[in-house]
Design goal:
alpha/beta, 4 domains, 5-stranded mixed beta sheet, cell membrane, membrane, ArtM/GltK/GlnP/TcyL/YhdX-like, AA_ABC_transptr_permease_3TM, signal
C-alpha cells in the first residue's frame, strides 16, 4: 500500500506537469501582440506551411532534379510575400499539422485548400475566401454506371482526407456509408484504384486534376446541402494576427480585382503536364536519393545517441539511489507507453513554443529519445546477464565500482546484447519514417511526393520498399558477421 501511495503521488505530479505544459502551449498559441506584419518585415521572410499533395492547389514538380512547390496556393502566397516586400519560405508537412504550425509559431501562415470551418475558427484566424471549389466524388471509371450520384454510395466505403471538410461532410450526410479517413490524398486515390473504397470525396478542382491525368478515374457530383462559404478555401493564421490577416485580405482583393485566379489555375495546369511527361521512377532518382540520405542520417545519429543515453538510463535504473532510479524508470515507462508519432509532434510543436527547432533536428531528437528507452532495457538486461561472480572477482582485485562496470561488466554485457542492439538499429531505420509527418524529407516523405507528382500509386512504393530491404538486409548480414567474430574471439 505504501508503494501504491508513492506511485499515485508520482502520477498526480506527472499529470500536473503535463497539464501545465499543455496549458502553456495553449496560451502561447492564442495570446499575441499584433506585431505580426512588422515581425515578418524585420525578419525579411514570410514563413508558410502547406501540404503539397493536393493538385492543383499545391503540389511539387521535378525541376532540374530538385523539388519545387507549385500550384494555385503557392502563387497566392508568392503574391502576399511580394506585397510585403519579403522573401517567401515554404515548409511542407501533413495537412493535419498545418494549423498547429501557425498556432505554435512555426509559421506565419498555413495554406492548403483549408476550409475555415467554425471549429477551426475557434483556434485560428482566417483570411477572406480566395477560392470556391465545390464538392465532388472520384470513382473508378469502370464503376461509373454503378455509382452515378451520391445516393448510389449508400452502404459503400467512402474515402476522405483526415481533418478536411470532406471528412466532416461525409460523416454528417453519408450516415449510411462507411467513412474511411487517410492522411494523404495519394493514399486515398490508391485505395480507390485498388477497390478499397468505392469513392473519394474531394474538391472539384482537385478531382478534375486527377481525372485529367488518370483516364481510369471519373467525377460524380456531391449533393451536400451546404452554404457556398463553407466550401471555400482561406489562409490560416494564429489568433490575434489582425495586421497579417488585413495584409492577406488586401492581396486577395487585388488578385480578384486583377482577375489573376484564372492565370494561377492555368499555370498550375502547365506544371501538372510537366509532371506527367515523364513518370518513370528513374526520372525521380534524386528524390529517392535525398530521402535515403536523410533516413540514414537520422538513423545513425539516433542509434549513437540512443546507446549513449540508454547506458546512462540503465545505470540510473539499477542504482540503489531512488533519486536516480525513479526518473529513469518514469522516463522509460512514459516513452514505451506512448506512440512515437505523438513524441515527434510534442518535440517539434511542444518544444517549438520555447525554442524554434528545425524539423530535421526535432526528428533526430525524438527518434533518439525513443530509442534510448528501449536501449536502456536492453543494456539493463545485458548487465543482469553477466555472472555475479565477475563482480565479486573485480572486488577481490581491488577495482572500484566504476572500473568494474567500465572494464569488466559492460564489455561482457555488450557482447551478450549485440544481437538485440542490432535489431534496435534496424527497427530505428524503419520506424524513423514517422518523422515525415513534420516535413522531414526522408524516404517516406519523398515517396508521397513522387506519388502526388506522377499520379502513380504503386511504383514509388515498390521502389522505397526495395531501398529499405537492401539497407536492412545488408545491415543484418554485417551485424551477423560481427556477432560471429565476437563469439569466435
Amino acid at each position: 500500500m505504501k508503494g501504491d501511495g508513492k506511485m499515485n503521488k508520482f502520477l498526480k505530479a506527472l499529470f500536473l506537469c503535463i497539464g501545465l505544459f499543455l496549458g502553456g502551449i495553449g496560451l502561447s498559441g492564442t495570446v499575441h501582440a499584433d506585431s505580426s506584419v512588422q515581425s515578418i518585415k524585420d525578419r525579411g521572410v514570410l514563413k508558410v506551411v502547406t501540404s503539397p499533395d493536393y493538385p492543383p492547389f499545391e503540389f511539387q514538380i521535378n525541376k532540374h532534379g530538385k523539388s519545387e512547390d507549385v500550384g494555385i496556393d503557392i502563387e497566392i502566397v508568392k503574391k502576399i510575400a511580394k506585397d510585403l516586400g519579403v522573401k517567401l519560405e515554404i515548409k511542407n508537412m501533413d495537412f493535419a499539422a498545418l494549423l498547429v504550425a501557425v498556432q505554435t509559431g512555426k509559421a506565419d501562415m498555413a495554406i492548403g485548400g483549408i476550409n475555415p470551418t467554425p471549429e477551426r475558427q475557434q483556434n485560428a484566424d482566417f483570411s477572406k475566401i480566395y477560392y470556391y471549389g465545390g464538392q465532388e466524388f472520384l470513382v473508378n471509371k469502370a464503376d461509373a454506371e454503378k455509382f452515378k450520384n451520391q445516393n448510389a454510395l449508400k452502404g459503400q466505403k467512402v474515402g476522405t482526407q483526415t481533418g478536411t471538410l470532406q471528412q466532416q461532410l461525409a460523416k454528417k450526410d453519408l450516415k449510411d456509408s462507411k467513412n474511411v479517413g487517410m492522411d494523404k490524398a495519394t493514399d486515398l486515390i490508391l485505395a480507390l484504384k485498388t477497390n478499397k473504397v468505392a469513392a473519394v470525396g474531394v474538391e472539384k478542382p482537385v478531382g478534375q486534376a486527377y481525372v485529367d491525368n488518370d483516364s481510369d478515374l471519373k467525377m460524380i457530383p456531391a449533393d451536400y446541402k451546404i452554404d457556398k462559404k463553407d466550401t471555400g478555401s482561406a489562409i490560416g493564421m494564429a489568433k490575434g494576427n489582425d495586421s497579417l490577416k488585413d495584409t492577406a485580405n488586401q492581396s486577395i482583393d487585388q488578385i480578384n480585382k486583377e482577375n489573376l485566379m484564372p492565370k494561377y489555375l492555368a499555370t498550375a495546369g502547365k506544371y501538372m503536364k510537366v509532371n506527367t511527361t515523364d513518370t518513370s521512377m528513374l526520372h525521380y532518382w534524386k528524390y529517392f536519393y535525398d530521402g535515403l540520405t536523410h533516413t540514414l542520417l537520422i538513423s545513425v545519429l539516433a542509434v549513437i545517441g540512443g546507446i549513449i543515453l540508454g547506458v546512462i538510463l540503465a545505470l540510473m535504473k539499477i542504482s540503489k539511489y531512488k533519486i536516480l532510479s525513479w526518473p529513469a524508470i518514469s522516463y522509460v515507462e512514459v516513452v514505451r507507453g506512448t506512440p512515437m508519432m505523438v513524441q515527434v509532434l510534442l518535440i517539434y510543436f511542444g518544444l517549438g513554443v520555447i525554442i524554434n527547432i528545425p524539423s530535421l533536428i526535432a526528428g533526430i531528437i525524438a527518434v533518439t529519445l525513443n530509442s534510448a528507452a528501449y536501449v536502456c532495457e536492453i543494456i539493463r538486461g545485458g548487465i543482469a546477464s553477466v555472472d555475479k561472480g565477475q563482480t565479486e572477482a573485480t572486488k577481490s582485485l581491488g577495482l572500484s565500482n566504476g572500473d568494474s562496470l567500465r572494464f569488466v561488466i559492460l564489455p561482457q554485457a555488450f557482447k551478450n546484447i549485440w544481437p538485440a542492439l542490432g535489431n534496435e538499429f534496424i527497427s530505428v531505420i524503419k520506424e524513423s519514417s514517422i518523422v515525415s509527418i513534420i516535413g522531414v524529407t526522408d524516404l517516406v516523405y519523398e515517396l508521397n511526393v513522387v506519388r502526388a507528382d506522377t499520379y502513380r500509386g504503386v511504383a514509388p512504393i515498390v521502389v522505397v520498399m526495395a531501398i529499405y530491404f537492401v539497407i536492412t538486409f545488408t545491415l543484418t548480414r554485417g551485424l551477423n558477421y560481427l556477432e560471429g567474430k565476437m563469439n569466435h574471439d
